[in-house]
Amino acid sequence: MSARVHSQRRGWAGVFWLLLGLLVFVAVSVYAESANPALRRIFSLRDYNTRVVMGGTGLLGVACGVIGTFMVLRKKALLGDAISHATLPGIAIAFLVMVAAGGTGKYLPGLLIGAAVAGVVGMGTIILIRHHTRLPEDAILGIVLSIFFGAGVAILGVIQKMSTASAAGLETFIYGKTASMLAADGQRIAWAAFILIGVSLLLFKEFRAVCFDSGFTRAQGWPVRTLDAVMMGMVVTATVIGLQAVGLILVIALLIIPPSAARFWTEELRVLVWLAAGMGAFSGVVGSGLSAAFPDLPAGGVIVLVAASVFIVSLLFGRSRGLIFRAMARYRLEQRITRQNALRALFEASEHMPAGQPVTETALREIRYWRGMQLRRALNRLVRGDLVTRVPDGWRLTPDGQEEAQRMVRNHRLWELYLIHHAAVAPSHVDRDADLIEHVLGHDMVKELEALLAAATPEPPVPVSPHPIAPAAGKGRV
Amino acid sequence: MSWTLLDTWMVATGILSALSCALLGNFLFVRRLSLMGDAISHAVLPGLAIAFLITGSRDSGPMLLGAVIAGVLTAMLTQGISHAGKVEESTSMGIVFTTLFAIGLLLIVRAADRVDLDPSCVLYGSLELTPLDTIRVAGLHVPRAFAVNLGVLAVNVLIVWLLFKEFMIGAFDPMLATTQGFRPRWMHQLLMALVALTAVACFETVGSILVVAMLIVPAATARLLSNRLPVMLSLSLAVALGSALLGHLGALTIPRLFGFEDTTTSGMMAVAAGALFFIALIFAPRTGIVAHARDQRALRNRIEKEDALAALYRLEWKEGRAAELPALRQLRRLLRRGLASCEDGVWQLTARGKAEAEDVIHAHVLWERFLVDHANMREDHAHQSSERLEHVTTPEMREILTGTVEEPVKSPSDEPDLPPA
């Protein structure tokens, strides 16, 4: 049963994304045909540079989505924040070293190596502090972030006062320079993305274990610390290649937002990883495409905004945890509970009356409290379900309704008896507790209760209520 | 190095903002929101940009207002998304601040068509420039940044002083705060508004990195040194003060060691705070790395001593005479402590050594009996566990154990019989 529900949900998510993708594609192509030749050129991928940029950011989105999923599940979403800030002193020192060696200091691979080294040192510092103190994770990340970034600011201060070299251009690292991405950059991103995805696939089982129960995993003999270090190393890699593509701040977004958005759609890790990767790719491709189509739209920012829109859509419409889905589920549950309460009230009211006599609404209102039209609506719905019939001076249970009502009353009273006999609750207090539990008692549970209470429940189908059915309005609200 | 009036003003301003941030940082630390400063520092960008687009000027008044609104919005959205979507709070913080930053970036780039609005200029003031912009307060020329930060610090101190109990209970135990009628959620909103106000005022005057660092590092450093919030508060203020002072000195001196000119003070203040943190990490009296290593070493030595004593005792009991042994390190230590004596390679416990060894073996046997009789352990397994437990048996534990086992105590394994106590 639950497996079917799962696969159904997965199917829905897939259909939804397919439709959304198609919609975007159609909208974009219609718009492109009609209005904007630039947009058409970009989304038909005729431009070589556009192909490189969109491919590069798309792959970056995939890689970040995959690693980000593990980081978000591991509750270390902001690790990327710390690492990306920690790269700054590395970039600055690499610049100084290259200037000292006689270059201009703006040789990109050199700067990236500096960034990677600083990222690894930052990661080592995080591990060191984590090992030696009991400070909370967020404080550790914050400490490393601020100290390293401070050091970076200080070294940049030195560079700015140097007469021999100009530091202009180093700040593209902070804000990204996607539009001028070269084929070589695209290639570098592609390689890194393939490596990251490969490692995640290879270590999928291990990462899953660490993410969901690191204590248990450690007890089973897995090298949790090493796995954590591998994960952090992957974050460093993603951050360093993302730095130049979308900028220091916005690479954090690619690590956090797509996985969090995907989380609203599924409960299953394998699906989650691919969904996050897909959303990352979608953000990268659409974002960089839009940025190329319009003037003055920095790609990094647009990519993040596309990701944020995906997040908002998921937050609202997610099939597994989305707000609307949850609200609907809650509403349905409430309706069901009200209907069941109405059935039980009908049964209990008719218990002490001559057979066949209809129950009036007043009698029902004496048994329990109903908000305004709540009772009337519930009864009408029961009539539509053929469980209750309307007769001239009241309401009556149909044979089907009688059976269903018996089941509910039985559940309720079995639980009351259980509370009285096995939990030592006073008979005057059990009604309310049972009221909450009766709607969720499963079949097996009822069987167990029957077995447990065999002596106390003389005759099925419905045990006698262990307390007077109080005609007090206001008790047992739902 | 030359110290001028300018340096004094810079350091004074730096100290004021460091104190403000460190004070609030303690509460953020307890609430596990240390990164809020970093988040707000990025998220104020759209607030600044919108204020600029509306007013069309770079007046600091509207900009400050826009930034504070954006800061409070960050805190509220973080909580809202975390609550509504059941997302972890730090994750939701990451989502909010990166999105707001991206919006701000786009707004600024769009606005840059019309007027030059460099993000780094809008966002970050600089401590170096503070002494140049002065205003008259009570007949004195003081830097504007100094006056602003003094005001912010006064507001912070006042509110924290007035609401200390409420903040503390709200931070540690929101449930208790609710039952006491404190409305922890309002307390939280107030704290977030204070953080946003402080952060923005400080960005504008001294730059963002100082704020981010001072919201986190002093509180964390103080936490390494104390378990109590009031003590932590005062320690964190001391750390903030120290980092501001040392930071400026460092900015003036350290780059010169490498043959460069001086550098940015605020960056060095963050580095100085980091240095203080690592000093605390290494040398903290109880939890530091050194103290920890010392405790470990003392424990190891004690266990080694007790094992050696017990081993010598058992050997003597089994063989019926003093044992002939090479001069092992452990034995030489016993000799030095006067617990054993050695003649021609024959080792013997002194009276004091014998008493201590009997204590150890007594504890060992008590544990063996207890584990077998009361914990269902197999007789041949009890020895191994008791080997560990015997070293951590306090007199009180020994008394309780004695009460649980029958006299005379008989070891389930091959242990010496002890003389009656």
Count of helical stretches of chain B: 17
Q: Structural class given helices, strands, pairing of chain A?
A: mainly alpha
Percent helix among the residues of chain A?
over 70%
Q: Could you tell me the mean pLDDT of chain B?
A: 85
Taking the alpha carbons of the first and last residues of chain B, their distance comes to 73 Å
Give the helix proportion of chain B (percent range): over 70%
* β-sheet strand percentage of chain A: under 5%
Oligomer: heterodimer
State the shape of chain B: elongated
- Strand/helix succession of chain B: HHHHHEEHHHHHHHHEHEEHHH
Largest sheet of chain B: 3 strands, antiparallel
Rg of chain A (CA only): 32 Å
Indicate the radius of gyration of chain B in whole angstroms: 32 Å
Structure description:
The complex is a heterodimer of chains A (478) and B (421). Chain A has 478 residues and is mainly alpha-helical. Chain A contains 20 helices and 2 strands. In chain A, strands 1-2 form a two-stranded antiparallel ribbon. In chain A, helix 11 packs across helix 12 and helix 13 (269-293) crosses helix 14. The radius of gyration of chain A is 32 Å and the shape is elongated. Mean pLDDT of chain A is 81; it is low at 1-8 and 472-478. The interface between A and B is large, with 58 and 65 residues.
Which features would summarize this protein structure in a list?
heterodimer, A: 478 residues, mainly alpha, two-stranded antiparallel sheet, elongated, disordered C terminus, B: 421 residues, three-stranded antiparallel beta sheet, 17 helices, 4% strand
